[in-house]
Amino acid sequence: MDKKREMTRREALAASAAAVAGGAVLFAQRGLAFAQDAPGANGPRPSDTTGTRGGERTDYTPVVVPNGKKLPWTVVDGAKVFHLVAEEVDHEFAPGLRAKCWGYNGSVHGPTIEAVEGDRVRIFVTNNLPAATTVHWHSVLLPNGMDGVGGLTQKAISPGETFVYEFTLRQSGTAMYHSHHDEMTQIGLGMTGLFVIHPRTAREPRVDRDFAILLHEWRIDPGTSRPNPNEMTEFNVLTMNAKVFPATEPLVVKRGERVRIRLGNLSPMEHHPIHLHGYQFVVTETDGGRIPESARCPHATVLVPVGSTRTIEFVADEPGDWAFHCHMTHHVMNQMGHQFPNMIGVKPGAIDRKVQAVVPGYMTMGQSGMAEMGEMGMGVPANSIPMVGDRGKHDYITMGGMFTVLKVRERITTYVDPGWYENPPGTLATRASRDVMERNGIRVKREPG
Ligand SMILES: [Cu+2]
Question: Looking at residue 43, what is its pLDDT?
Fold first, then answer.
């Protein structure tokens, strides 16, 4: 009897899963049809975010959003007016990988909102999606009815409707915004953005460079072009501002500058320990505000939990090309690395020849790891990217995904990518000569190669 009831429950689950899958297909088709007549970025005309209207503070260092953009605003009746348009976006994660995501104003993630503590902000949200949505202003202090939680604090915004949110910014720091309606689907498809609020009164020491990076993770099966928002554990595209290395723009700074990096994480499921090479930094802010100086301690890695922001600061006094990346090893791999069979130590012997009789050119791969695969430019399915990075100055960089480079330089006049770092003589690791090894008492059994 119990067994029979269990079977029935399973059958019911299978039936409902099939129904959901069928619905998803219909939904995807609707999304595609919608994309053809969807408008592009149709926000308000650009305006100077460091303008002087309304007596606002204007002397802050504007935030830089690598690979991203900022939301323009105008001033109407003393309020800064923004316009977000929720819509489908055909987004490129890196050359070779595009997907139909959901974002705002033609971009994934949405443009960064930048304002000042004390500002009155009026934010219009137009829904050009095929589904209802809302926008939640994550960690922003505001009246309850402006909080953007579908059903709980407001009616959801139906397709075609425009809602208006209005509140006064009572805090400073790094906040975020994201859909708070059908969260699994809409956040999973990319409906997130950063909301940077500068303090009303400048704080010392001031920073010279102020970067903002939003972390995310996606499931995009090779050969498909729609991220799967129903994925819970197996993410294969890990992004900084919705790009994977080698498409992530480097953070370029002049030697001696004080640097701030704001990190936000609206990944569906995973926290990201972000590691900076070459420096010790302090965490100056969380999404809950500024950390008192007495409570700060040095770090080289900062964990950015899901639904949180962390802001770090340091003085860039050591020139070079410094890696800046998530330290979870699967988060610095691109699509093709995660489900590869474990071939470490396998000796194919005559098997390759036998298989070649059936599959010409067959070769067992991965016996000593993954590093060679990116470099060899192995064939990959349509609309997918090889598992690892790009050619660097010295060799192949075997990382992809949530990886970028902090480029600290002397004597630069612009922040355009300065190319690779020239290592001063005597500061580069090189192959040890037999002479040097003997003099230092180093003996090895194996010859190179
Ligand atoms: Cu990570």
Answer: 30
Query: Region 294-315: what's the mean pLDDT?
Result: 98
Q: Is the dihedral of CA 330, 310, 177, 214 positive or negative?
A: negative
Q: What angle do CA 435, 437, 443 make, to 5 degrees?
A: 125
Calculate ∠ Cα 137-142-143, nearest 5°: 120
How confident is the model over 162-173, as a mean pLDDT?
98
State the number of CA atoms in the 13 A half-sphere of 274 facing the CB: 32
Distance 431 CA to ligand 1 centre (A): 32
Looking at residue 377, its pLDDT comes to 59
Q: Is 41 exposed, middle or buried (CB count within 10 Å of its CB: 0-12, 13-18, 19+)?
A: middle
Give, as residue ranges, everything with CB less than 5 Å from ion ligand 1.
272, 326, 328, 331
DSSP summary character for residue 143:
-
- Cα of 295 to ligand 1 centre, how many Å? 26
Q: What is the DSSP string of 273-314?
A: EEEETT--EEEEEETTEEPPGGG--EESEEEE-TTEEEEEEE
Ligand 1 centre distance from Cα of residue 411 (Å): 34
Q: Which residues pair with 10 in a beta bridge?
A: none
CA of 242 to the centre of ligand 1 (A): 13
Peptide bond into 305 cis (omega under 30): no
Distance 65 CA to ligand 1 centre (A): 19
CA 305 to ligand 1 center in whole angstroms: 10
Q: Separation of 325 CA from ligand 1 center, angstroms?
A: 8
- Ligand 1 center–CA 265 separation, angstroms: 10
CA 378 to ligand 1 centroid distance, Å:
25
CA of 244 to the centre of ligand 1 (A): 12
383 with 334: CB under 8 angstroms?
A: no
Q: What's the whole-number mean pLDDT along residues 298-322? A: 98
Question: pLDDT digit string (tens) for 254-297?
Answer: 999 999 999 999 999 999 999 999 999 999 999 999 999 999 99
| Confidence band of 222 (pLDDT split at 50, 70, 90) | confident
Distance 327 CA to ligand 1 centre (A): 6
Residue 299 C-alpha to ligand 1 middle, in angstroms? 17
Average confidence score pLDDT of the chain = 85
